[in-house]
TrEMBL record:
<dbReference type="GO" id="GO:0005737">
    <property type="term" value="C:cytoplasm"/>
</dbReference>
<dbReference type="InterPro" id="IPR001957">
    <property type="entry name" value="Chromosome_initiator_DnaA"/>
</dbReference>
<dbReference type="InterPro" id="IPR020591">
    <property type="entry name" value="Chromosome_initiator_DnaA-like"/>
</dbReference>
<dbReference type="GO" id="GO:0005886">
    <property type="term" value="C:plasma membrane"/>
</dbReference>
<keyword id="KW-0547">Nucleotide-binding</keyword>
<dbReference type="Pfam" id="PF00308">
    <property type="entry name" value="Bac_DnaA"/>
</dbReference>
<comment type="subunit">
    <text>Oligomerizes as a right-handed, spiral filament on DNA at oriC.</text>
</comment>
<dbReference type="InterPro" id="IPR003593">
    <property type="entry name" value="AAA+_ATPase"/>
</dbReference>
<feature type="region of interest" description="Domain IV, binds dsDNA">
    <location>
        <begin position="215"/>
        <end position="335"/>
    </location>
</feature>
<feature type="region of interest" description="Domain I, interacts with DnaA modulators">
    <location>
        <begin position="1"/>
        <end position="4"/>
    </location>
</feature>
<keyword id="KW-0446">Lipid-binding</keyword>
<dbReference type="GO" id="GO:0006270">
    <property type="term" value="P:DNA replication initiation"/>
</dbReference>
<feature type="binding site">
    <location>
        <position position="42"/>
    </location>
    <ligand>
        <name>ATP</name>
    </ligand>
</feature>
<comment type="function">
    <text>Plays an essential role in the initiation and regulation of chromosomal replication. ATP-DnaA binds to the origin of replication (oriC) to initiate formation of the DNA replication initiation complex once per cell cycle. Binds the DnaA box (a 9 base pair repeat at the origin) and separates the double-stranded (ds)DNA. Forms a right-handed helical filament on oriC DNA; dsDNA binds to the exterior of the filament while single-stranded (ss)DNA is stabiized in the filament's interior.</text>
</comment>
<dbReference type="GO" id="GO:0003688">
    <property type="term" value="F:DNA replication origin binding"/>
</dbReference>
<keyword id="KW-0963">Cytoplasm</keyword>
<feature type="domain" description="AAA+ ATPase">
    <location>
        <begin position="31"/>
        <end position="159"/>
    </location>
</feature>
Length: 335
């Protein structure tokens, strides 16, 4: 296992899951059994799962830790069943000190494997052994799944992992760039981090392409223009449809607000400015009508939207900071 806690970049979107995983690795306790980590693909669930196993075995080499994808649990079970060796299978999985299973949603629709995992789960819990599971969804959303398993999964500690925020994405890029001896300027890091918002693997792919480019041309540093040219197609392939919700999310993140602020009646200067910027971009980058844009912002009327658009359009021409902000937001939205 190469994934460790030391290599995990902590941010607001994964802080609780990281803390829970570290607590399990240091002080296994029945109150956290099982630990169920859930979230979309590429957010670091597997990294945390492997980090737990690595940490436990470093602290106590005699501990028997089993890490495996749920798919392998199923294939192992089928293999042993076909060869009349189910006793060997049960002895192997029910005598470990810690069972770490990745992508447990793979059990959905496999009733015989679910039945076997149910009994394995019970045997381990009764023996005060620890179980950590990851999934791309909540237990209640895994279907079809034995209700007994769903109940047991939900009975422990639930820890969600969300897409990394801007600060975390920047930290991930800088850490991985340093590992490859690549100097990544703040502007280049911002370019990548604002274009790729949903998962870590895409950040790694973008950085790997820049690293290869720098190595090929013997460059110590990659400029923003080089990065833009090199990654243009990659960014385009991952471009999402631009919607009011996506614009609101990008503006809120950039200006360190919550999306709910933009949709509220909050009239504080910072909130009002952010709301006007988002309305302006909605008018520019979507096909939504003025009334539709107003509804997306908590029921504002079309005259409010018109006023916002006129104000920000004027500022874009006269205020360098506003012009730069809009440029950054357009880039973040793939424009």
């Amino acid at each position: 296992m190469n994934d460790t806690f030391a290599k995990f970049v902590i941010g607001a979107a994964n802080q609780f899951a990281h803390a829970a995983a570290l607590a399990v690795a240091n002080f296994p306790a029945s109150g956290y059994n099982p630990l169920f980590i859930y979230g979309g693909s590429g957010l670091g669930k597997t990294h945390l799962l492997r980090a737990i196993g690595e940490h436990v075995q470093q602290r106590a080499a005699s501990r028997r830790v089993a890490y495996l994808p749920a798919e392998r649990f199923v294939s192992d079970w089928v293999h042993h069943l076909q060869h009349n060796r189910t006793a060997d299978f049960r002895q192997h999985y029910r005598q470990v000190d810690m069972l770490l299973v990745d992508d447990i949603q793979y059990l959905a629709g496999k009733p015989r494997a679910q039945e076997e995992f149910f009994h394995t789960f019970n045997a381990l819990v009764e023996a005060n052994r620890y179980i950590v599971l990851t999934s791309d969804r909540l237990p209640q959303d895994i279907a079809p799944l034995d209700p007994r398993l769903r109940s047991r999964f939900a009975a422990g500690l639930m820890a969600e992992m969300q897409p990394p925020d801007l600060e975390t994405r920047l930290a991930i890029l800088q850490r991985k760039a340093a590992a490859h001896d690549l100097v990544l300027s703040p502007d280049v890091a911002m370019l990548i981090a604002t274009q790729i918002r949903t998962n870590v693997p895409d950040l790694e792919v973008a950085l790997a392409r820049l690293t290869a480019y720098a190595s090929l041309y013997n460059l110590a540093e990659v400029t923003t223009d080089m990065a833009d040219t090199m990654l243009a197609q990659f960014f385009a392939e991952r471009a999402e449809a631009i919607t009011a919700a996506r614009i609101q999310s990008a503006v809120a993140e950039r200006l360190e607000l919550n999306v709910s602020h933009l949709r509220s009646k909050d009239r504080r200067r910072a909130v009002a400015f952010a709301r006007q910027v988002a309305m302006y971009l909605c008018r520019e980058l979507t096909d939504a009508s003025l009334p539709e844009i107003g509804r997306a912002f908590g029921g504002k009327d079309h005259s409010t939207v018109l006023h916002a658009c006129a104000k920000i359009a004027g500022l874009e021409e006269t205020d360098e900071d506003v012009a730069r902000l809009l440029w950054q937001l357009r880039r973040a939205l793939g424009k």
